[in-house]
């Protein structure tokens, strides 16, 4: 599944036509994480290393690709499944969805899910989830910043597609630049983050679409995006 996800995410990832990716699932479980049958001594250390390397690769890929990734969740997301939700740029979930890191209860602490979850929710919330494995509700997940929006089940697809459509109305290179910069500056100290972001604002202004947006605002019209990373000036 991880290899399939990686392949699907990478498909035409650099294409100008790809504007947003939505991850969803059928059935009562969004993702329950790793198959524990793959994690017994019979598979061995080399195989286990490959599993977690692939998982980390997929999670970082979601954050590194130039288009926003939205999780559309209707059900249970546990362990690496919760990690997947935390790694997405936006998460729209139903009221019945729950989130947990229950690895501690089967003797395998959710250390890799903790990387994404610990960057999405307050530390003490993350630690309670990790130490107890107790699920949190969709509304608690929203309260703590793990998800973006909680909606009734019948409106999940409508609400998710509405966000995706709004993303598609913006300039692709501007969104790509903004996403990459957000991830980079979040890993920096305050002063370094401002230096990074200030430089990128200037780079953004040099984009053809950056200037088109400003002209359109001044002229009181809708912008016509080129959706190409072409420069208006040096």
TrEMBL record:
Cellular localisation: Mitochondrion
Alphabetized SUPFAM superfamilies for the sequence: ClpP/crotonase (SSF52096)
GO BP annotations listed: fatty acid metabolic process
A Gene Ontology term for the protein's cellular component: mitochondrion
Keyword field: Fatty acid metabolism, Lipid metabolism, Mitochondrion, Transit peptide
Gene Ontology terms for molecular function: hydro-lyase activity
Primary role: May play a role in fatty acid biosynthesis and insulin sensitivity.
Family: Belongs to the enoyl-CoA hydratase/isomerase family.
PANTHER family assigned: ENOYL-COA HYDRATASE DOMAIN-CONTAINING PROTEIN 3, MITOCHONDRIAL, PTHR43602
Name of the protein: Enoyl-CoA hydratase domain-containing protein 3, mitochondrial
Species assigned in the record: Xyrichtys novacula (Pearly razorfish)
